Amino acid sequence: MTVLVTGGAGYIGSHMVWELLDAGESVVVLDRLSTGFEWAVAPEAKLVVGDVADKELVGGIIRDSHVDAIIHFAGSIVVPESVADPLAYYENNTSKTRTLIETAVREGVSHFIFSSTAAVYGGAGLEPVREDARLAPESPYGLSKLMSEWMLRDAGLAHDIRYTALRYFNVAGADPRGRTGQSTPGATHLIKVACETALGKRPFMQVFGTDYPTPDGTCMRDYIHVSDLAAAHRLALQRLRAGGQSLVANCGYSHGYSVLEVIESVRRAFGRDFEVKMGDRRPGDAAAVVANSDLARAELGWTPQRDDLDQIVADALAWERILTSKNSARG
Length: 331
Ligand code: UFG
Known about the structure:
It contains ten helices and 14 strands. Helix 6 (190-198) packs across helix 10. It is globular and about 55 Å long. The strands form four sheets. A seven-stranded parallel sheet has the order 3-2-1-4-5-6-11, with helices on both faces. A three-stranded mixed sheet has the order 12-9-14. A two-stranded parallel sheet has the order 7-10. The N and C termini lie far apart (40 Å). By secondary structure, it is α/β, with parallel strands linked by helices. The structure holds uridine-5'-diphosphate-4-deoxy-4-fluoro-alpha-D-galactose. The site of uridine-5'-diphosphate-4-deoxy-4-fluoro-alpha-D-galactose (UFG) has 21 residues, from helix 6 and strand 8.
């Protein structure tokens, strides 16, 4: 049995590949390498460079490698980009996922794990959001993912395929063993941006808005360590293989940190100050987005091991340093 990981050369996907290999699984990665990196794929995994919507290619991989499960990370993930170019998001995220599901059904792959997002919810309140909260994506990105969840639901009713869609909150950090991490240039994610600023890769960073209805006026998010997220997928795989029914579950820690708390944590990890400017709100940001993760804990038996902002930040900073040396070695 082999697990096919799409987008396995990307940030979360490359952690998943290590998680599976560490658990003794056989892994094939399918990635176009449009934003991922060949070097990010663990050498023990087989890398196929190609598109998830290439039916012949994917069918061949499934048959040749005896794939029994697909973990589907490949997709576009930048919210403002999805607003500027919605059709590209519906093509790359929704349409190609449809084709991949069709190939899975045709080839008899009955376990499918899908990367979904907290962006399927509308502007959440300060309370942790449950899976049965109102679904009201505010961007084409969120809608492209929600439509994929719905296609999986309907395919699951009509065909022999069971799925788990995990709705990620704010994924951050890096492999604690330093094997992979967030490497895409031009990052916009808070922890990555703060680590880059600490290391002098940016002259300063900005806090987007200080007048939100939160305790310190800055936005609150539920930051989850990427290794805990990968572990949730592994548990979802085990559960599906054991006959578990389809499931949609949040992946977060159920508590939030403000932007200022995150920056303080980066200052502690770095040991020195760096320049932070207070700026205006960024369009589209909700005041708080925090998961209720009871369902993932109960159904997957998921017990996060790295629920500690300082550890997330320390791992992200360590990876940022590794990346600096990798990039300078490459010239
Ligand atoms: N922020 C700053 N300065 C920065 C970067 C971010 O103040 O330089 C703030 C943002 O305004 C926000 C918080 O830090 O309040 C977190 O921002 P991120 O960009 O790190 O993450 P988002 O919460 O905007 O987005 C995340 C995922 C998306 C997903 C979304 C769903 O990255 O993929 O959650 O809610 F769609």
